[in-house]
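Page 37, continued from 36.
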């Protein structure tokens, strides 16, 4: 009876969390569509849906607000789930695409593409994925072979992050014509999102999120440790590679849309875990929903707080994420200094 009561209580809690996550998703999406330097009403949105871009407000909604809001929702979901996966695969709760260099790997690939004139949505997404995957694979390989503790994984990732950023700086120095593009890209911004950029990232993120949730049980097994996972019949090497590919696809698609937005993959998974959610079948979809709402709300703040001027959403993320990162270390919820 006690176990049944506990199970019912747990299911009720999870249902309430999903309800809260869906409400945050919907409210943030509505605010993203309605908020900005130009005043757009619900009537303008309905008119744009029914009649197309017939007026100035309708054109703003269709060609600016709508793709930007969709991009915010997708990027928030992708980076949050990528962070949750990396934390499990690397066995470190401080791991995230921005901290261990995965975002920088994707950013370096896009910087190279731009420098050599390789534009286009699908090409950008493809090369971004390659850069993200190679970085994730390198961090995982070095950590498994040479890291003496979980804390070393973060230090290795930070070092690789610095190296990749140095390469990007060198390319920008050699190709100064891409410097203006690089400024917004390296901070993280949604103001330049177009449907041309949005389409490939949307397809990649939605498919990859679905695959990640399907393999959630295997992700839980990996967290038990390599020996235990093998004892349960899991091909650890194969599944680790699969999850690195999933996280790289998510991070790469997000970077190709919005640039190097940091800390989303750290803040959201931690917040969801603090609510008592540990099983991946609940953790991943909740991270996707809360992450989508969180990034969209941050972008709404970025484009309205100094209206009619905008600041990059990456600045908001840095102000929120850096103190959170320090807080987690102090509370010893991730790596320990003595590891």
């Amino acid at each position: 009876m006690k176990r049944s009561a506990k199970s019912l209580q747990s299911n009720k809690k999870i249902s309430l969390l999903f309800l809260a996550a869906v409400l945050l998703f919907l409210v943030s999406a509505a605010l993203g569509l309605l908020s900005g330097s130009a005043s757009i009403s619900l009537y303008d949105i309905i008119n744009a849906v029914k009649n197309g871009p017939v007026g100035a407000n309708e054109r703003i909604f269709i060609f600016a607000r709508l793709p930007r809001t969709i991009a915010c929702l997708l990027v928030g979901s992708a980076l949050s789930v990528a962070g949750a996966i990396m934390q499990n695969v690397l066995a470190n709760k401080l791991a995230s695409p921005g901290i261990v260099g995965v975002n920088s790997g994707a950013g370096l690939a896009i910087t190279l593409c731009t420098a050599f004139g390789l534009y286009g949505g699908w090409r950008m997404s493809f090369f971004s994925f390659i850069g993200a995957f190679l970085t994730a694979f390198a961090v995982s390989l070095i950590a498994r072979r040479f890291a003496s503790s979980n804390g070393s994984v973060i230090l290795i990732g930070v070092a690789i992050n610095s190296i990749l950023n140095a390469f990007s700086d060198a390319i920008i120095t050699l190709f100064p014509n891409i410097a203006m593009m690089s400024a917004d890209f390296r901070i993280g911004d949604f103001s330049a999102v177009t449907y041309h950029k949005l389409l490939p990232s949307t397809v990649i993120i939605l498919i990859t999120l679905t695959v990640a949730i399907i393999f959630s049980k295997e992700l839980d097994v990996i967290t038990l440790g390599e020996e235990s996972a093998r004892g349960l019949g899991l091909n650890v090497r194969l599944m680790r590679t699969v999850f690195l590919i999933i996280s790289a696809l998510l991070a790469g698609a997000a970077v190709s849309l919005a640039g190097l937005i940091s800390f989303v993959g750290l803040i959201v998974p931690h917040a969801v875990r603090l609510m008592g959610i540990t099983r991946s079948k609940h953790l991943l979809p909740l991270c996707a929903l809360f992450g989508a709402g969180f990034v969209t709300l941050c972008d709404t703040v970025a484009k309205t707080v100094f209206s009619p001027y905008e600041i990059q959403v990456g600045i908001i993320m840095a102000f929120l994420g850096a103190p959170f990162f320090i807080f987690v270390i102090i509370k010893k919820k991730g790596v320990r200094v003595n590891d």
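The chain has 14 helices and no strands. Flag for discussion at group meeting. The radius of gyration is 20 Å.
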